[in-house]
Design brief:
Fructose-1,6-Bisphosphatase, Chain A, domain 1, eight-stranded mixed β-sheet, alpha+beta, 28% helix, D-Maltodextrin-Binding Protein, domain 2, 17 strands
């Protein structure tokens, strides 16, 4: 019999159940929480795929807490993930890029929930109207306050305290990639059966690569260490396969996903306009940093490990260097040599 007929399909739900033994303390709650996120991702994927046929493209006429113009799909995605997490019963509070304050879930089904979720419902939304890949990024923590009202301290935990993190990329195919601290696995949505199926088991990022991803339009505002690293990337040298290719999509999830598979580095440094960086620590940088470390890569603020940063606010920003370990390490060396922290 042809081997194609022997190959079994492992769905996200099956995979989570099989890995339940990895979380003896969770008693199924974390598995169900990941399932809820997967369900919301399917709903958002459906709307993303028909965006050009429906009245959900374009601006909604308001801005989020970051001062960024909200898109209609931004708001839709935010509502869908909040709804799924609220009704699932395993999440007691949510911190979203689209909401200034944390959202406490007060329903009876969630009163004993032990997890909080940080989420960027639709990363790269500036690309929605031009049909470029966008995504969702999420991070899950165990609640640290004992009972009653959710505290800000439940969210302001170092990235090392995450119990699960992942992202969904809506592109030529839709993928959900996640980690619970035991490797990274990717699942591709099969629209014929409506299930995420294991397609990329035990993902590993190459130790080095030939791609650097940065918005070079801001070059004049970059720290000197970043400028010097870019020059290094552009020098011709056969032994290191330079010059490297410059690839910048403008959707963090899309740039990160490509580099995770192929090897490379993504950099969003501090600039004169954004001296603290632009990307958000809790719901963008921490989850991707944990994923890349679990895949053998490295994530830094240019000087030290992202996951060791102690957050002090929900929407805290940070410079971000992430990808192949050798490339990030060299970028740090350039920052230490040429730039002051």
């Amino acid at each position: 019999m042809n081997s194609i007929y022997k190959r079994s399909v492992v769905t996200l739900g099956q995979f989570i159940i099989e890995r339940q033994a990895d979380f003896p303390y969770a008693k199924g709650e974390l598995s169900r929480l990941l399932r809820d996120i997967g369900i919301a991702a399917k709903i958002v994927n459906r709307e993303v795929n028909k965006a050009g046929l429906a009245d959900i493209l374009g601006d909604i006429g308001s801005s989020n807490v970051q001062g960024e113009e909200q898109k209609k799909l931004d708001v839709f995605a935010n509502e869908q993930f909040i709804s799924a997490l609220s009704s699932g019963g395993e999440c007691c509070a949510i911190a979203s890029e689209e909401n200034e304050e944390m959202i406490q879930i007060s329903s009876d089904v969630s009163k004993n929930a032990r997890y909080v979720v940080c989420i960027d419902p639709l990363d790269g939304s500036s690309n929605i109207d031009v049909n470029v890949s966008i995504g969702t990024i999420f991070s899950i923590y165990r609640r640290v306050s004992l009972s009653g009202t959710i505290q800000l301290s439940d969210f302001l935990q170092k990235g090392t305290e995450q119990v699960a993190a992942g992202y969904v990329i809506f592109g030529s195919s839709t993928m959900l990639v996640y980690t619970t601290g035991r490797g990274v696995n990717g699942f591709t949505l099969d629209p014929s059966i409506g299930e995420f199926c294991l397609s990329h088991p035990d993902m590993k990022v190459p130790k080095t690569g030939t791609i650097y991803s940065i918005n070079e339009g801001n070059y004049v505002h970059f720290p000197e260490g970043v400028k010097q690293y870019i020059k290094y990337c552009q020098v011709e040298e056969a032994a290191t396969k330079r010059p490297y290719s410059s690839r910048y999509i403008g959707s963090l999830v899309a740039d990160f996903h490509r580099n995770l598979l192929k090897g490379g580095i993504y950099i969003y440094p501090a600039t004169a306009k954004s001296p603290k960086g632009k990307l958000r620590l809790l719901y963008e940088c921490n989850p991707l940093a944990w994923i890349v470390e679990q895949a053998g890569g490295k994530a830094s603020d240019g000087y030290g490990r992202i996951l060791d940063i102690q957050p002090n606010s929900l929407h805290q920003r940070t410079p971000f260097y992430i990808g192949s370990s050798e490339m990030v390490k060299l970028a740090e060396e350039y920052m230490a040599r040429f730039s002051q922290k």
